């Protein structure tokens, strides 16, 4: 730290930029380290339009999963235990031409339950997924 040889009673009028530069560089390093974690992988959810399009797969050709507000799970109309869901959806997707899964859920269902069903369907081989409200 430099001390001027002038009168020591004079106020210091110079701005010391060293602490400002140090803090700025530390903040830049922190942001550079945290930035990759801000981009997290997730499930893409696209909002569909009400119009029907020619050439799309009908609902009967897709895999339909229904989750009631009581927690009962059905796959293509057949009731199913939750622990059997991954194997059953994988077997149903083998028969499906376009690997399309439609999940129907009540508004009272928890988001975690529905996302879990979508995630397990994706892991079982679903290429396309849709969410519908009962």
What does this structure look like?
It is a single chain. This protein is of the alpha/beta class and 134 residues long. The protein has a domain at 59-133: Nucleotidyltransferase, domain 5 (2-Layer Sandwich). The chain contains three helices and five strands, in the order αβββαβαβ. The chain has helices at residues 18-38, 85-95, 111-124, and strands spanning 63-67, 73-75, 78-80, 100-105, 128-133. It has a five-stranded mixed sheet with strand order 3-2-1-4-5, with helices on one face. The radius of gyration is 29 Å and the shape is rod-shaped. The model has no long low-confidence stretch (mean pLDDT 80).
Descriptive tags:
single chain; 134 residues; alpha/beta; Nucleotidyltransferase, domain 5; five-stranded mixed sheet; 5 strands
CATH architecture heading of the domain at 59-133:
2-Layer Sandwich
Tell me the distance between the termini. Answer: 73 Å
What overall form do the CA principal axes indicate?
rod-shaped
Query: How large is the share of residues in beta strands?
Result: 15-25%
CATH domain class name of the domain at 59-133: Alpha Beta
Give helix % range: 25-40%
- Structural class computed from helices and strand pairing: alpha/beta
CATH topology of the domain at 59-133: Nucleotidyltransferase, domain 5
Provide the gyration radius in Å: 29 Å
One letter per element, helices H and strands E, the order comes to HEEEHEHE
Annotation field: number of helices: 3
Count of distinct strands: 5
Q: Describe the strand arrangement of the main beta sheet, using strand numbers.
A: 3-2-1-4-5
Largest sheet: 5 strands, mixed
Low-confidence stretches: none
The averaged pLDDT comes out at 80
């Amino acid at each position: 730290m430099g001390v001027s040889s002038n009168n020591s009673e004079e106020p210091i009028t110079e701005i010391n930029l060293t602490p400002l530069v140090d803090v700025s560089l530390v903040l830049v390093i922190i942001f550079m380290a945290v930035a990759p974690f801000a981009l997290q992988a997730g499930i893409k959810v696209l909002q569909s339009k009400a119009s029907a399009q020619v050439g799309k797969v009908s609902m009967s050709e897709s895999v339909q999963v229904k989750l009631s507000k009581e927690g009962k799970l059905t796959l293509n109309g057949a009731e199913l235990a939750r622990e059997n869901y991954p194997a059953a959806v994988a077997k149903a997707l083998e028969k499906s031409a376009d690997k399309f899964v439609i999940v129907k859920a009540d508004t009272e269902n928890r988001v975690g339950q529905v996302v879990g069903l979508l995630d397990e369907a994706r892991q079982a081989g679903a290429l396309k997924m849709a969410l519908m409200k009962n």
